[in-house]
Design brief:
By secondary structure, this protein is an all-alpha fold. The protein is 75% helix and 3% strand. It has two domains: 2-48; 72-272, Orthogonal Bundle (MetI-like fold). The chain has eleven helices and two strands.
C-alpha cells in the first residue's frame, strides 16, 4: 500500500500546540472499488442474470408447496437410510478425529523442531483439504463399491483434514511453560506432552470434533447422490421422480435429526468447556 500513500497524499493536521501530524487516507474507497470490479467481472464470466433469477424464483415456491403435506406413510422407509447416514457421520468423524492427532503433532513447530518434517505434514493437510468431499466419495465408490463404506471414507478424509489443521494450530499457539517444566523435571517427552499440552488443547479440540460431526450429518445426506449410501440415495431418487411429498418427508426427518444432534452437541460442548 506504499504506492497508494504516494498517490493519495496523507492529510496534514496542525494540533493546538503547533505540532503537525499526518493522517493517512482511508483505503476503504480503494477496497470497495476492487470488490465492485471483481463482482462485475464475475457476473460477466458466470452469465449471472438477476432478471432470470427473479422471474424463475416462483418455481421454488411451487416445488416447496408440493412438499406439503408430506407423505407421513413414507416415514417407515426413511429409518434405515437415516440411521445409515448417522452411522457414516459418527464413524467417519471419530476415525478422522483420531487419525489426525499424530499428523497434527508432526505438523506443530513447537513440538517438532525439524522444519522439513512440519512443512511436509502441513502440506499434506493442505492437499487433503483441497479435495471436495463429493469427489472423494465418488472415488471411494469405485474402490469400495456403492454403499455406506464409501461415504464413511469420504467423511473420514474430510474430518482428518479439517480437525487436523485446527489441532496443529492449537498446538502451535498453546503455552509451552508446563511442557518445558515437566521436561526439565525429567519427564519423558510423551508424558510431558500428555500432562503439559493435552490438558490445554483437549477441550477445544473435542468441541471442534463435535461441531464437525454436526456438519458431517448434513454432508452425509448429500453423499448418496454419488452412490455413497444414506439419505442421499432415496432423496436423489424421489427428486428424480418428482415425488415432492416424499422429498418433504425426507427433509423433515433430516431436519429433526440434525436439530437433536445439534442440541446434544451444544450440551456436551458446554460440559467440556
Amino acid at each position: 500500500m506504499k504506492l497508494y500513500d504516494r498517490i493519495f497524499k496523507p492529510r496534514e493536521l496542525t494540533l493546538s500546540d503547533g505540532t503537525v501530524v499526518r493522517e493517512k487516507r482511508s483505503r476503504t474507497p480503494f477496497i470497495l472499488l476492487i470488490i465492485t470490479v471483481a463482482i462485475a467481472v464475475s457476473v460477466q464470466i458466470t452469465g449471472f442474470s438477476l432478471t432470470t433469477m427473479i422471474s424463475r424464483m416462483r418455481y421454488f415456491f411451487v416445488i416447496l408447496a408440493s412438499m406439503f403435506p408430506p407423505a407421513w406413510s413414507y416415514l417407515r422407509h426413511i429409518w434405515t437410510p437415516l440411521f445409515d447416514t448417522i452411522k457414516m457421520s459418527l464413524l467417519g468423524s471419530a476415525a478422522g478425529a483420531l487419525l489426525c492427532i499424530p499428523f497434527a503433532v508432526l505438523s506443530s513447530n513447537n513440538l517438532i523442531h525439524q522444519r522439513v518434517v512440519t512443512s511436509f505434514f502441513k502440506l499434506l493437510f493442505s492437499v487433503v483439504r483441497t479435495l471436495p468431499t463429493l469427489v472423494v466419495a465418488l472415488i471411494a465408490t469405485y474402490i469400495f463399491g456403492l454403499g455406506t463404506l464409501a461415504g464413511t471414507v469420504a467423511i473420514t478424509v474430510f474430518t482428518f483434514a479439517y480437525c487436523g489443521k485446527i489441532l496443529y494450530e492449537s498446538l502451535e499457539t498453546c503455552s509451552m511453560g508446563a511442557y518445558e517444566a515437566l521436561e526439565a523435571l525429567g519427564c519423558r517427552r510423551m508424558s510431558a506432552i500428555r500432562w503439559g499440552i493435552t490438558a490445554q488443547v483437549a477441550p477445544s479440540y473435542l468441541s471442534t470434533v463435535l461441531f464437525c460431526f454436526e456438519g458431517n450429518v448434513r454432508y452425509a445426506a448429500i453423499l448418496g447422490y454419488v452412490g455413497a449410501g444414506g439419505l442421499g440415495l432415496i432423496l436423489n431418487e424421489k427428486i428424480g421422480w418428482r415425488e415432492y411429498h416424499k422429498v418433504g418427508m425426507i427433509l423433515i426427518a433430516l431436519f429433526v435429526t440434525v436439530a437433536i444432534i445439534e442440541a446434544l452437541s451444544q450440551y456436551l460442548r458446554k460440559k467440556i468447556m
